[in-house]
Give the backbone structure.
Amino acid sequence: MDPSELEKEEEGFSYQSMLRRDRRRWSVADQDGDDALTKEEFSGFLHPEETGHMRDIVVLETMEDIDKDKDGRISLSEYIGDMYRGTEGEPEPDWVKNEREQFSQYRDKDKDGFMDQEEVRFNYCCMGF
């Protein structure tokens, strides 16, 4: 790959940022610290949501993916926007209305209109985020 392509950003992603993200995940998966992954460690790298010691990386990556304004918290519009992008004037599907209610009633534990990292962690662990 041409080195100039590494930093080229497309829709918020660049190869360089994906490499940094994968490297961070690799380091967390590498429990014995030898910079090589066993089958079990590699499974955790590929499927961190299924591996207990990888929980924090899943929460961090979820925050990075959904928190578009990078303020360290997820607003209702960011939460919905991650799942649904309707067109203006189009009626909102019932499942989206249900997700709005879930956010307000259950996911936003402190009722401040946002999910912070602890609320994302709780939702991941306890509510199947």
User: Anything to note?
Assistant: The chain has two domains: 13-46, 54-129. The mean pLDDT is 91. DSSP finds seven helices and two strands in the chain. Residues 15-29 form the longest helix (15 residues).
